[in-house]
Design brief:
Structural class: alpha+beta
CATH class of the largest domain: Alpha Beta
Oligomer: single chain
Shape: rod-shaped
Largest sheet: 7 strands, antiparallel
Radius of gyration: 39 Å
Number of domains: 2
CATH superfamily of the largest domain: Mog1/PsbP, alpha/beta/alpha sandwich
Number of strands: 12
CATH architecture of the largest domain: 3-Layer(aba) Sandwich
């Protein structure tokens, strides 16, 4: 076995004839095939397994620094930063802004209170309200476009055949007279009325279920809610959302909404914000 030289400089001479042989594949003088150590860059013979100067195993090739693995950590930094930003409140707000989901910012909303029906809600700023009565029962209409006021002049049940330009929401005390329905059960009442509408839609209209009748909680009260799609004679698609909420003073409060697709998030947010006061 060849012993390391006393100097700290890696060998640069041909191990057979001692001719200078750095950075070549064979000795220029004796044509001996030679190779370079991957650790100290010294010259080694063709049959050496280990470098005679530093002991590095030549078949392993160039000796790499342990810092080479830092590239993986560097590559993970932007991924971790993106995940952190996406999960932060700022990222969630940006996602809601892009997808159009979620409630509008608080600065663009206004509180609505009605004592006749007995509820409070949060409506988008600029929407108008119209108070009315039907069969002696008060109800409130909330409109995104004031030009749609004539469409809420009749019975609340006529809203399904209206063709408003914007969103129309009606909230009022329910007057349920069908003897075959438990008028204190919002799910039973809504399921019965929805089945009637799906089975016998208005002439020229097609009705399909978007969200089936389901029991929900609105403002801490037992409620039922459903959502349907309506296609009228002109081929325009509206979304019809309906809910019954059990009132603290007895009976049910009816919530109906007819809206184009673009204003569905605002309507859903309004219904979610309803709180009965009596």
């Amino acid at each position: 076995m060849k012993l390391p030289p006393l100097a700290l400089t890696a060998p640069s001479l041909c191990p057979r004839c001692d001719a200078p042989a750095m950075f070549v594949d064979e000795c220029n003088q004796c044509a001996l095939p030679i190779r370079q150590c991957g650790s100290c860059l010294g010259v080694a013979g063709p049959f050496d397994r280990y470098c005679g100067f530093c002991g590095h195993e030549l078949v392993l090739g160039r000796k790499r620094s342990g810092a080479r693995r830092l590239w993986l950590l560097v590559a993970l930094i932007p991924i971790a930063a993106g995940l952190g930003l996406g999960l932060s409140p700022l990222g969630q707000q940006a996602v809601r802004g892009v997808t159009g989901r979620g409630s509008p910012p608080a600065a663009t909303r206004a509180n609505l209170t009605d004592r006749a029906v007995g509820f409070t809600a949060s409506a988008p700023a600029g929407w108008t309200r119209q108070d009315s009565t039907q069969a002696g029962q008060p109800f409130v209409a909330v409109l995104s476009d004031p030009a749609d006021a004539p469409s809420v002049a009749g019975s609340p049940t006529s809203l399904v055949t209206a063709t408003p330009k914007g969103a129309v929401i009606e909230v009022g005390r329910a007057a349920i007279t069908d003897p075959g329905v438990d008028t204190s059960d919002p799910v039973a009442v809504l399921a019965f009325e929805t089945a009637q509408l799906l089975g016998s839609p208005p002439a020229g209209y097609s009705v399909a279920t978007v969200q089936a009748v389901r029991a929900v909680n609105l403002g801490g009260r037992v409620a039922a809610r459903t959502e349907l799609s309506l296609i009228g004679p002109g081929g325009v698609t509206y979304f019809f959302e309906k809910a019954y909420v059990s009132s603290p003073s007895g009976g049910l409060v009816l919530v109906e909404a007819l809206t184009p697709a673009a204003q569905r998030p605002a309507v859903s947010s309004f219904i979610d914000s309803i709180r009965l006061t009596r």
